[in-house]
Amino acid sequence: MKQSAALLALVLLPAMAHAECVELTYSFEGRVLSDSGKPAAGALVGVSWLEFGQAAGPAVAVADSKGFYRLSVRFRPNNDMPLIGPACTDRLDHINIIAYTGDQRSYPTQVQVSGLKQKLPSLRISESAASPWSRPG
Q: Could you tell me if 90 and 58 are in contact, meaning their C-beta atoms sit under 8 angstroms apart?
C-alpha cells in the first residue's frame, strides 16, 4: 500500500510542478493629444512590459479621430512551480507606453497596472520630444 502511494506521488508530482498557468488579458485605453491639446488622430501607440524578466511586446494601437485608442496585452504568468507559495501568481506589474505621429512622439511613460482593465493617462505628442533619429526639415 505504501509503495502504491509513493508511486502515485512520483507520477503526480511532475504534473503538478509544471502546471499550465492561465494566460491573462489586460485591456488598456487612453487618449493621445498634441502639444496644443487637440486629438492626435492616427497616432501610433505602443506598450511594452516585462514577462519572465525579459522585455515583451509591443502591443500596438492606432488612435481614432478623437485621439482615443484601446489595446490588449496578453500576459503569460511563469509556469514554474515555486518551492514556497502558490503557483501562477505572476501579474503584470507595470507597462511602458509611448505614442508617435510622423516625426513627433510623446515622452515614454511608465504606468503601474492596477487591474485587468485600466484607463491610462493622456499622452502628449510634442516636437520637443521628437526622436533623436528623425531628420530635420
A: no
Residue 78 has pLDDT above 80, yes or no: no
Distance from C-alpha of 43 to C-alpha of 63, rounded to nearest angstrom: 5
Rounded distance, CA 7 to CA 42, Å? 61
Residue 133, C-alpha cell as written in the block: 533619429
Nine cell digits for residue 29: 485605453
Question: Residue 15's pLDDT band (boundaries 50, 70, 90)?
Answer: very low
Q: Full-prediction pTM beyond 0.85?
A: no
Please report the pLDDT score of residue 108 as a whole number.
94
For residue 8, the Cα-to-chain-centroid distance in whole angstroms is 40
Higher pLDDT, 18 or 2: 2
Q: Mapping DSSP to helix (H, G, I), strand (E, B) and coil, where does residue 11 land?
A: helix
As beta bridge partners, residue 2 has none
How deeply is 79 buried, as exposed, middle or buried, from its count of CB atoms within 10 A (0-12, 13-18, 19+)?
middle
Q: What are phi and psi of 63, to 5 degrees?
A: -70, 140
Count CB neighbours of 31 within 10 A.
21
